[in-house]
Recover the amino acids of this structure.
């Protein structure tokens, strides 16, 4: 964009990605690289134990106003009220559910969660700060 900030009233057409949380650096909010024991932020150099990594919401949407379609990503705790829990709590729930169900990827969003997010957002109108 051209650096101008504003508000956009638009309806959600679709959810673009089923990964709703990501491991985030607590200093710069960039995606962390995680292995089984450690995390590393490539942007600011922050490092730590994998079990101490924080998570942040990331919801990628296709939205439409009266004239145009847009791809937009909503980040952070503004999504807590929609999910009912923090991103860290949701990540723990996803991992617990996947462990109990035998899912190979412990971070994959269960189909029920994806369906619930689609039901909550698709077809609804929101005001986005862009």
């Amino acid at each position: 964009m051209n650096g101008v900030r504003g508000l956009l009233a638009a309806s959600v057409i679709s959810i673009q990605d089923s990964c709703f949380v990501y491991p985030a650096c607590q200093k710069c909010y960039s995606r962390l690289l995680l292995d089984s024991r450690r995390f590393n932020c490539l942007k600011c150099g922050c490092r730590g134990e994998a079990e101490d990594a924080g998570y942040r919401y990331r919801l990628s949407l296709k939205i439409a106003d009266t004239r145009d379609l847009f791809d937009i990503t909503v980040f952070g705790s503004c999504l807590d009220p929609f999910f009912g829990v923090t991103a860290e709590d949701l990540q723990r729930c996803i991992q617990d559910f996947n462990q109990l169900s035998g899912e190979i990827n412990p971070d994959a969003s269960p189909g029920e969660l994806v369906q619930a997010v689609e039901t909550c957002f698709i077809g609804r109108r929101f005001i986005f700060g862009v």
